[in-house]
Every structure is written in structure tokens, then in C-alpha cells.
Amino acid sequence: MKILKDILFLAGGSAIASLGYVLFLIPFRISPGGVSGVSIVLYHTLKVPFGVSYFALNVPIFLWGVRVLGIDFGLKTILGTVLLSLFPEFFQRVLHMGAITENSVIASVYGGMLLGAGLGFVLKGKGSTGGTDILGRIMNRYTGLSTGVSILIIDSFVILLSAWTFRTYELALLGYIALFISSKMIDIILEGRDYAKAVYIFTNREKKIGERIMKELKRGATLLEGKGMFTQERRGVIFCVIHRRQEERIKEIVEEEDPEAFIVISDVHEVLGKGFPRRKE
Fold this sequence. Notes:
The chain is an alpha+beta fold.
């Protein structure tokens, strides 16, 4: 049942994101960055079908990611990539769908909304569409920059490349609008509006879980000493603060290491300290 739910999120999210491309972004040559941005450029310059170039570009990136980071992307990354390659072609070639507005600003806004909502559902299904996510993690490995900053750099480069190719920097402005809105939509779909989460993990395998949190999520963790009032048994308590996008991953880590662990996750309005910028009202 859980696998079916994840697949539905993957399929539905890929379909929604594809509508953002087909109805708004591709017709107006608006690049939201990443592999899809390059595919939009190839679509308009070399007439290469969007889905074909998107899949072709992701294959070497995926293989490179496996070589550098290890095969931890799983079948869901492959499935997400395939679906996001097939849906645009289905909408364009079978259903003959295309632009539904003549206003490029409206296209960037609604294209970003649909793209972000779709990718949010894909991530909610514990999947990925590959591309920039993998490149960002590789860049993090070699440069020390955070994955988020690495992804922003890559997306910005692709948006500027698109504007240069089409000889109009207005497309760069529209691309950044789409990128900003899609990022916000991903956050809203995943965890609502609170930007951080406080996590308490009650476990007997605190060392292994703590190590994975620090290594895989790049977040600090504090070990507290706990004692059950009823059983009088000693249990380790791990406390950490994570970004809301990391919530699903930390639950997976705990489930893999200690299925009997007790987890409490709460919203955090503001965090001051390394790794968390001051929240602006």
C-alpha cells in the first residue's frame, strides 16, 4: 500500500510538472534551470523533442552520480525521470496540448506553480527526477558548497545560457520568476509554511542514527540521556533541527536503523545558528 501511494505521488507529480512545461514554459522558451531548461533550449533550436532530450541528458548524469555518490538513488529516481520524459510527449503529440495564454509573465508564474507542485508531489513520494539534484550533490562533494547553493548555481547558469541562446535577457528574468515560484511551491507541498523542523528520536541505536544524520543530512545532532518513567530503562534521545525538505529522509534513516524508535517532529518558527539563515518576516 505504501509503495502504491508513493508511485501515485510520482505519477501524479510528474503529470502536473509536465503540464507546467507543455502549457506554459516550453511554448514561451522559459527555462526554469536544470536539465529541463537545457531541453527547452534544444527543443527550440534543434527541434529535439523535449522528452527525448530530457531523458538522454539524465542518463549520463545518473551514471555519473552512481559512480561518485554510490547507487543510492534507487528505482524511484529512474521512474521519476522516465515519467517526466514521457508525459510531455504524450500531452503534446497525443492530446495536442499547447500554450493556453499569450502572456509570457502569466506563463512564467503558472508554469512555475505547476512545475513546483508537481516536483513537490514527486519528492513526497520519496522520488526524484534526477538532473540538478544529482549534479548538486556531486558539486557538494567536490567543492564543499552546500547542495542547495550548488543547485542554485547550476540553475542560474542554465537560465543565463537560455537567455544568451535566444538573445533576450527578458527570458532570464522570466526564468528566475519560474524558478523562485517553483521552489516555493515545492516547500508548500512538502511541509507547509514552517521552514524548519525540530526532531526528537528516542532510540537504543543512537550512535548509528546520529552518524547518518550528520553524514547524510549534514546536520548537527545532540545526544541526550533519557530514562523511561514506566520501564525505568535508559534510552538515548537524539535532538536535531532539520530543513523541512529533510523530514522524509530522516524518518527513512530512523526506520532503517531502528524500527522500534519513537520520533517526535514539530514545527520551528525560527532557528538562529549555523546552517539556518535568520528568518525574514
